């Protein structure tokens, strides 16, 4: 009888599995196999790294995910969805991005994220009820606060997100002007981060310890985090300081020193964050309809020629801009202020001079006063702002009165003020100490009629822009 084969527990080749899992994680299979070999599942982080190192094609995306916009050429990169679109006919097709985490669309702009910030009193918190031009190039921290800030009502929280700006502030208007100039010159259009923080401080020495300062630092930290997510860095070209009549405690010298201390503190905070010192922008105070002798006028005048070791630029005197009865700029004035800010900042960043005529010396001889100015061009006499027959000059501490103002024949940057008596020992005021006119809108009572020969058109079609002389208070010396 034939012998039977011994039993075996080994499965036959026909019974062997054709696929399986070698390594499994909580979020799925990591290494699997089949008859063709091993399959390795790579993480999103590894894939992103490979796309940076190798020319791997990005996964195709559907433009409908962006909403009803004219977009094409979608691609994924480093947590962002990049695409081409036509938002503004004036700009034509450009590249934009939106975070996979959500949020608003921003420009895929070259270079660093540029922070335009401001700190001051409630006057700075105003805005124009329209979104900015270049909307995808002008954004705010994505904390649902906007570009105006919290106005000292609460504490802001840092965020790496960015969001569009629904209203136009001095900072967004400044960004608009800078972008318009670059567009006209065929230059790159960067991304601007804008935020103004204000509070109710009644002393310049309270400002660095208040909510406005703390929230401004939070906005800067948000800019650093947002720039990191964009794959770039934060640069801060300018911080505007808007604090003057709000101070009810300091005299002029103390206020000037407090503003220098504020700039030093801001510089220290930026340096601690590895950010270079900014240009500080300050519109020279000219008072309001009710207060024409506030110490801030003299303090700002002092800073114009003695700013300390800071990059302080004064784009214009406040008397050339319309204000409300409460002393706040009108919408028209905000746009004109931003245009002057843009001119001054552009020159300052290029390490070129920008300064309005600044009166430095008043010398009396017989019945005339010679006033010498620092100016970038020859002085011009003008009644465009209706400054009165003395063009904004007045005398105190003497019985002498100004009867005429003329240009010096031997110096294009000097004036001759004719008087009815010798004014030695008196004080000469320019755009300072005028008779108050309560409740009047328009230009403040402190106005002047001296400027240099620089001129620029107002893009909104208003009166031409000039570099008007800064307010001044000078002792009249004997020649």
Automatic annotation (TrEMBL):
<protein>
    <submittedName>
        <fullName>Uncharacterized protein</fullName>
    </submittedName>
</protein>
